[in-house]
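Below is one protein, fold included:
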Amino acid sequence: MIHLAFRDLDRSSPWYPLKNWTQDFDQLLHEVGRARTSASRGPSFACDVHETESDYLLTMDIPGIHPDDIDLECTGNHMTLAFERKQQTTAEDSVVHRLERPVGAVKRTFTLPEGVDLDRLQARVDHGVLYLAVPKKEVIKSRKIQITAGKSACLQEVQAPPTESNVPAANC
């Protein structure tokens, strides 16, 4: 950066008056570079993802976006969120000095882990924050089967050759 060369100037230096100018110029270059970088990526909104025992919770700040303007689609294990923030109109006689709020279309696709129940997904917007709760499918718990010694009546009937007299009962 230019200002590094002028950083340690004392007041007697003929270059001292340029010290503030170079700092301002560096600040301008920094802001232009930041604006170009963010414009090339398009607007994006950060998303926090938390996991509880029963859900995945996604939280995204989307100020100024109405819930009706949000498209949320789920296909397989992918969830796609899309919306657009439009540029605010200003008075014709106003001069714009800075535009920092991101505008444009946003589309984010999240790959969800196996075992989520998309049929029970819940989404809500509250004060400019989008909350998504993606429930996990209930895990089928195993159960212990007690094993007894000897043959049960059902097994004896099944192992014997079929005759009219030993057809297994309906309750076996």
Observations:
- The first helix runs from residue 3 to 6.
- Strands lie at 47-51, 55-61, 71-75, 78-85, 104-111, 122-126, 129-135.
